[in-house]
Design goal:
By secondary structure, the protein is mainly alpha-helical. Helix content is 49%, strand content 4%. The radius of gyration is 30 Å and the shape is extended.
Length: 306
């Protein structure tokens, strides 16, 4: 059950209109790292979690993310107030009005024209919000790790938004939202490590002979650290193909009839490696003139080449 309280979770104070900044803030309204995506991510996890403590945490944080969505939406609305009134009432000359809503750049005019200055479920580039942003997979240890990363990404976006505004009220509200991302990250990490069997994710154990191996798959400039140390891994400096001991080729078992059809297909579409056919590209290609060091069109064609 939800019950809306009209007062915001955090007071929003905006010094003055700024359509460009409003447009940038949409990244945290309808973007992939935004508050709506976070709320939906944690709701879908909380609704199906079997652990009462974790379920309570997920539902609390999901609901708070909706409160944050309301704060961001209110900031967008306040920053667009001037443009909203100008567009609705047509109080300015057309050219001046256009300059006012486009002067901030970054497609803020689209926000004003298409959505009347209100918050839209898009990111700052106008891309509509999509449920594809929700990466819940239904395995709690995997989902909690994803949540930790999501909070970290959102925190970085809030930092960047704080850096592009000099409005003290906006900075203050964004600082609160940024800090709450950190608090949620701590909660998710605590919940993850309170699960005794939190690694590896899932039920099936990894294959023992490959789980502790590090393959050096890039030549030149190798750097060794705890992520590939001899203490933690068997380091394979020069890996070869087919680490399983096979021939490294893909194969499938077919019925006799299926194999006969594949053999006929191979015969019908076989390449003749002895041929060097003249093709359309050859007819219009250029070739080097060995005497003049220049490129000329071949003389054997009567085609009109461009």
């Amino acid at each position: 059950m939800f019950r809306h309280i009209k007062q915001l979770q955090y007071t929003v104070r905006v010094a003055g209109p700024n359509p460009g900044l409003a447009n940038l803030l949409l990244e945290q309204f309808g973007g992939p790292q935004g508050e709506l995506a976070a709320a939906c991510r944690y709701f879908t996890q909380g609704l199906s979690d079997e652990d009462p403590g974790r379920k309570d945490m997920l539902m609390d944080i999901a609901t708070e993310e909706l409160s944050h969505l309301e704060i961001i939406g209110s900031l967008v609305g306040m920053l667009n107030k001037g443009a909203k009134g100008d567009l609705a009432e047509g109080t300015e000359q057309e050219g001046e009005l256009y300059r006012n809503i486009t002067g901030s750049g970054n497609d803020s005019h689209l926000t004003s024209l298409l959505y009347g200055g209100g918050p839209s479920l898009t990111n700052s580039a106008g891309v509509p919000w999509t449920a594809a942003y929700i990466d819940t997979i239904g395995e709690v240890t995997a989902d909690l790790r994803s949540n930790i990363a999501a909070e970290a990404r959102a925190k970085i976006l809030y930092e960047r938004l704080i850096n592009v505004t000099d409005d003290p009220g906006v900075k203050d509200a964004l600082g609160f939202l940024m800090t709450r991302e950190v608090a949620h990250q701590i909660s998710f990490e605590k919940a993850l490590y309170s699960i005794r069997n939190s690694f590896p994710p899932g039920k099936l154990p990894p294959i023992k002979e490959y789980a502790g191996v590090y393959y050096n798959m890039s030549a030149g400039g190798e750097v060794r650290g705890s992520w590939n140390s001899d203490e933690n891994f068997t380091y394979v400096a020069n890996p070869t193909a087919a680490v399983d001991g096979g021939n490294g080729m893909a194969s499938v078992v077919l019925s006799e009839d299926q194999q006969a059809k594949i053999d006929r297909l191979k015969l019908r579409t076989a390449s003749d490696t002895t041929l060097n056919p003249v093709t359309g590209t050859d007819l219009c290609a250029v070739a080097p003139d060995k005497n003049k060091g220049a490129w000329v069109k071949p003389a054997f064609t009567k085609m009109r080449c461009p």
